[in-house]
Design a protein that fits this description.
With about 270 residues, the protein is of the alpha+beta class. The chain has 4 helices and 14 strands. The structure holds dinuclear copper ion. The site of dinuclear copper ion has 8 residues, from loops.
């Protein structure tokens, strides 16, 4: 059967489909060659990674490995000198996430078991927020990071704002485990550790020993018992100004103790 035997309507459909596909391919080629827009690529032979990292591969030229996980991007904050060219390598530690760098053409999916790549030149000073645009669970809407570009920065560096406690402070084994749980159990989605206002839940900075007023007017001081109760029965006592949205998470007594030890270190 040759093309001329096909029904006229079907022929039209096939022709349009082929033309549209060819048009798309030409637009991608045009974007890559003439507009200097990097075309996102999957790197099938790239080694998988679970930790963020940065390496300098030339003058103003960097490779940054980004990790997406519920519900955070790491590195949380990247400082770049103006004019930097960055190869972004993106992996996921759990489910599918989106990865869009606002103000750029970088728009990738973070897919477990796969490394995706895009390249971007940062010609202008400013903050470039990274957002997750793929629904990935309870903390999806809080999943973000930022890239700060400035001509005052001379060398690219990762500034990890999830490390609110003094980096020189040696954490006890218990607090260290609590710090891991803080990420693994997803607390990080709603509770920040840098004291910033506007979170879904109260900040953990300075939480231990703080006086809090509850919605019903009850005043209490945050101690071990209150933290344990808030994890086990999250909506029993709600701090004034917040919503009863915290889920009951599978956390053991030991884990609660460790999380409490970690909270004590965030002053
Ligand atoms: Cu990650 Cu939405």
């Amino acid at each position: 059967m040759s093309f001329s035997n096909i029904d006229a309507t079907e022929k039209k459909v096939v022709t349009i489909a082929v033309l549209v596909s060819a048009g798309h391919l030409m637009l991608i080629a045009y974007a890559a060659m003439f507009l200097n827009i990097s075309v996102p690529t999957c790197q099938p032979n790239e080694k998988l990674f679970t930790e963020p990292s940065i390496s300098k591969v030339g003058p103003l030229r960097y490779e940054v490995h980004y990790v997406a996980k519920m519900w955070n991007f790491l590195p949380k904050k990247l400082l770049l000198p103006k004019g930097s060219t960055v190869d972004f390598y993106l992996g996921s530690n759990d489910v599918n996430h989106g990865f869009h760098i606002n103000g750029t053409h970088v728009n990738l999916m973070a897919v477990p078991g796969v490394v995706n790549k895009a390249t971007q030149i940062f010609r202008e000073n400013g903050d470039y927020p990274i957002i997750c645009h793929e629904y990935c669970g309870f903390g999806h809407q809080n999943m973000n990071a930022v890239i700060s570009v400035s001509d005052k920065i001379t060398e690219a560096v990762i500034e990890d704002s999830t490390q609110a406690n003094d980096p020189k402070l040696e954490l006890s084994a218990s607090a260290k485990s609590g710090k891991e749980l803080f990420g693994v159990k997803g607390c990080v989605a709603c509770h920040n550790v840098d004291g910033a206002a506007g979170g879904v839940g109260p900040t953990f900075r300075g939480l231990y020993g703080r006086s809090e007023e509850m919605q019903d007017g009850l005043k209490l001081t945050v101690d071990d018992a209150y933290i344990a109760e808030s994890i086990k029965e999250p909506i029993k006592k709600i701090v004034k100004g917040y919503n009863p949205v915290m889920p009951v998470l599978p956390v053991s007594e030991d884990e609660i103790k460790n999380i409490t030890e970690y909270i004590k270190t965030i002053k």
